[in-house]
Amino acid sequence: MLKSIFLSVALLQSLSGAAEPKRVELDIDFCQLPLPDTIKRANASFYVIATFQVSPDGKPTNIKVVERDVGNYVDAAAVIECIKAWSLVGLPPDTRAVATWRWNHGRGWEGLSVSGPSISYRVKASGNRCPYTNR
To answer: Domain of 98: which CATH number?
Structure first.
């Protein structure tokens, strides 16, 4: 079972008016947000969406879970704790970003995207993401 995907990516990004590209370093953990077994087995496909800002030191702040298609089955606190651990060094201070996890029935967590005016980042999960469907 895929427990987590740890990503550390260094990207070059040109900022408006900058003569030299600025280095952006992302350290994003693909958290396997916990779900109850009833939702895992249900015919449910949904997104979990959170917004946040990036502080001058690259840490996410003002994290808000804005969409949980399955009501209270995805714990907002788990989403917030996951995002708090990320690092997005090199993005302009106060950059607003959106994190979106995608759950697909029978497949499990399929991906995570992080996007905003200065970032566009996607991860697709692979491997045995949904082992309980084989029970």
So the answer is: 3.30.2420
**Gap between the Cα atoms of 95 and 121, Å rounded:** 14
Query: What's the burial of 128, exposed, middle or buried (CB within 10 Å: 0-12/13-18/19+)?
Result: exposed
Q: How many domains does the chain have?
A: 1
CB 99 within 8 A of CB 116: no
pLDDT digits (tens, 9 = 90+) for 44-61: 888 999 999 999 999 999
Tell me the DSSP string of 68-127.
ETTGGGS-HHHHHHHHHT-EEETSPTTEEEEEEEEEETTTEEEEEEEEETTEEEEEE--S
Q: Which domain holds residue 95?
A: 4-11+22-30+37-128
Would residue 16 count as lying in a domain?
A: no
Digit-coded pLDDT (tens) for 102-127: 988 888 889 999 999 989 999 888 76
What's the CA gap between 96 and 112, in Å, rounded? Answer: 17
Flag whether the pTM goes above 0.85.
no
